[in-house]
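ok, trying the design again with the full structure, not the truncated one.
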């Protein structure tokens, strides 16, 4: 009898983590961790390197799926030490411990490791050049993870889902309030990338560690993978679509008027790449997953919200024009 694949998941209380917990495939024994214990989660502080090493030594996972991260892009400019501890120190600690126990690491990363200066999709093998503390901390985490033989990095972009704090849920709330007051909504239009729904990203994560494929990772030639939904969008495009499809889904009575802003009109403490589209063609082929256009994925997420009886999701999240990467 084949022993179960033991996976230690970090960030299990976050939007991607919750999607991964809800979709655990047969044959996987999941150890779900979060910043706090409760609701089936084991407490694990990613800022505590020794706690990360201890978790690996105690549970001896086949894989650590490191979906937890410090994601406050603007606040990272003032909290660089904490961002580096979580985004770079934790993967280094996991890699060090896994080198002793024989396990492997899948490190989730972000399009913000690129500077956005090119006008074509970034390939996995291209050198990183982040613009701010958040991107630099994630790039350092990639480098630390890849020191472990057999580790993989999975970069993604503009992650959102039906739970958590994200651009989609914030925009639904703002569409509802601004439409009611007949006020326009301003969103940045000169930052281009691609939204990625958690239900497509979780499928890519499971495939990346060999679950659901005929043989464990045999089709993956590179150690760095790119995954986002298909198509291209600006934050403005995304906000407009959320309003349009929110009305279709019955989540909104009316969409607010959305006005395009430049990044200069919406200054933020952290610089963001103006173009961060990822070339996912090789990863899609290797994982055997068909791409889903971001508008189709968005419609599915809004359908989940409707079916859950959540008419106009609230909660804190990025303000209009700001990014919310993983």
């Amino acid at each position: 009898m084949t022993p179960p694949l033991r996976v230690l998941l970090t960030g299990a209380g976050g939007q991607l983590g919750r999607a991964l917990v809800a979709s655990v495939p047969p044959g996987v024994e999941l150890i779900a961790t979060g910043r706090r214990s409760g609701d089936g989660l084991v407490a694990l502080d990613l800022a505590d390197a020794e706690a990360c090493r201890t978790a690996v030594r105690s549970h001896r996972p086949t894989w650590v799926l490191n979906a937890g991260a410090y994601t406050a892009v603007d606040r990272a400019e003032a909290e660089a030490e904490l961002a580096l501890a979580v985004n770079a120190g934790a993967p280094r600690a996991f890699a060090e411990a896994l080198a002793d126990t024989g396990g492997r690491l899948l490190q989730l990363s972000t399009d913000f490791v690129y500077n956005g200066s090119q006008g074509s999709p970034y390939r996995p093998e291209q050198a990183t050049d982040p613009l701010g503390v958040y991107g630099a901390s994630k790039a350092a985490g990639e480098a630390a993870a890849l020191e472990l033989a057999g580790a993989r990095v999975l970069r993604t972009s503009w992650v959102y889902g039906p739970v958590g704090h994200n651009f989609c849920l914030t925009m639904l709330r703002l569409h509802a309030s601004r439409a009611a007051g007949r006020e326009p909504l301003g969103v940045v239009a000169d930052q281009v990338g691609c939204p990625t729904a958690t239900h497509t990203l979780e499928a890519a994560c499971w495939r990346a560690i060999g679950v659901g494929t005929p043989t464990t990772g045999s089709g993956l030639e590179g150690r760095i993978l790119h995954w986002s939904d298909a198509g291209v969008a600006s934050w403005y495009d995304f906000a407009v679509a959320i309003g349009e499809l929110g009305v279709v889904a019955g989540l909104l009575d009316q969409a607010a008027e959305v006005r395009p802003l430049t990044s200069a009109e919406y200054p933020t403490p952290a610089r963001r790449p103006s173009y961060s589209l990822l070339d996912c063609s090789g990863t899609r082929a290797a994982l055997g997953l068909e791409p889903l256009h971001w508008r189709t994925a968005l419609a599915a997420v809004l359908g989940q919200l409707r079916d859950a009886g959540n008419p106009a999701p609230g909660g804190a999240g990025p303000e209009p024009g700001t990014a919310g990467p993983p």
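Keeping the full-length input from now on. Confidence is low (pLDDT under 50) at residues 214-218, 312-326.
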